[in-house]
């Protein structure tokens, strides 16, 4: 019997994001999920403290990093995938194949020209585009890709051994689920995606993409499918689509746009690579006015 993978979480406090290093227990092979680049929005300065912690852990433990995987195109933090790919040059960067739809959508929002801005909505910025139900090995541990749209069209969850990494699809039971009001988001799709997750064994360990410590409890990132089916505040096993839809749409109507949505999308669509510097040697990001958000 294959031993459960070893999971280490690096929690990014500024964005409440969970970055995971997942190691095959029998070998040194590992993958990284949802790395984060530090970003000071007020000063428009990037940093790599969080990524350096992940890098140091991997190198100290002599891990062979095979993959750096994004669960979706994040709108609340800038990805650290490009930095880590340079530090682990044999690792493949990967994301769900529906990233192409997200790229095409936001190419219009940011008016990105294929030639001038060196941006094509074809997923070529990533080494691998992961298909629904595709499987690969991490050492002796199997990894299965589940397309779990709803939060965004490109969302995936990763079943790694006895674990599932749900990104922004399913949160801790007292947190609920992700918002569905981004372009391309869908309450119906999110409901169906969670039903798919609920088909996994109850003992499956669930590792979430974010945690906001509701009620002042300690930060947490691990539960189980069984716990979520029994106690998730938004979608239990018996919750109907109509019930979920009413709650989720009402909740989303109250939410402001993520603070880092404008810089995050422009960088994350490119897999963490900044746009080319202009003639003065400075990199610039665009700010579309009165386009993104609008609830608050």
TrEMBL record:
* InterPro entries associated with the record: Metallo-B-lactamas, Mito_Persulfide_Diox, POD-like_MBL-fold, RibonucZ/Hydroxyglut_hydro
GO function term, MF aspect, one = sulfur dioxygenase activity
Keyword presence, Metal-binding: yes
The Metallo-beta-lactamase domain, residue ranges: 15-210
Annotated keywords: Metal-binding
Which BP terms does GO give this entry? glutathione metabolic process; hydrogen sulfide metabolic process
PANTHER family reported for this sequence: PERSULFIDE DIOXYGENASE ETHE1 (PTHR43084), PERSULFIDE DIOXYGENASE ETHE1, MITOCHONDRIAL (PTHR43084:SF1)
Can you say what this protein is called?
Metallo-beta-lactamase domain-containing protein
